[in-house]
Design a protein that fits this description.
This protein is mainly β. The chain has one helix at 2-20; strands at residues 23-41, 48-67, 72-83, 86-99, 102-113, 121-132, 137-146, 150-162.
Length: 163
């Protein structure tokens, strides 16, 4: 149900954005510095504990920039994220406010964990910034804040190319 609502909202946002301003498509890739926290209850002692670890990985994918106004856009992405033996599909839908060559980004990030045996769907909150090097190339830094008993967070550093 959540996926249907998300894609319906994305389609509606895209429909309105196409009529308002320019729509651009592109590719994005980069490095991900991730940390995972797992909260659990020890079955023997009943104590609550948290285990965490950090790894470096990469991401690659595509994005659309749906212009709403001269300085505001919605930027949905579909990314394949690989961190050591852990793979996921990430679908951030970011609000992008631009002032000159700089932009700030924020929004939800829906994640589907490809290697998990259960609890495969997670929602994060992404916050970041980007800088347009040229009309077609940008660099981006974004932090994805994981939530829940299994929280996967990470710093995404990457480049994008708009077609």
């Amino acid at each position: 149900m959540m996926k249907k609502l998300f894609f319906t909202g994305l389609l509606m946002a895209g429909t309105f954005a196409v009529s308002a301003q320019e729509t651009k498509f592109g590719a994005r890739a980069g490095v991900d510095f991730a940390s995972m926290k797992v909260a659990y209850v020890n079955p023997i002692t009943g104590d609550e504990s948290t285990v965490s670890s950090s790894e470096t990985g990469f991401f690659i994918g595509a994005f659309a920039e749906l212009g709403i106004s001269e300085s505001f856009a919605v930027q949905p992405e579909v990314l394949y994220v690989s961190i050591k033996d852990f793979n996921s599909l990430s679908v951030p839908v970011l609000a992008k406010y631009s002032f000159g060559s700089f932009s700030v980004l924020a929004g939800p990030d829906m994640n589907y964990l490809l290697d998990a045996e259960e609890d495969k769907f997670k929602v994060n909150i992404d916050l970041g910034a980007s800088y347009d090097i040229t009309e077609n190339f940008d660099v981006q830094a974004r932090y994805s804040i994981g939530m829940g008993d299994v929280a996967l967070s990470g710093m995404f550093l990457g480049v994008g190319y708009k077609f």
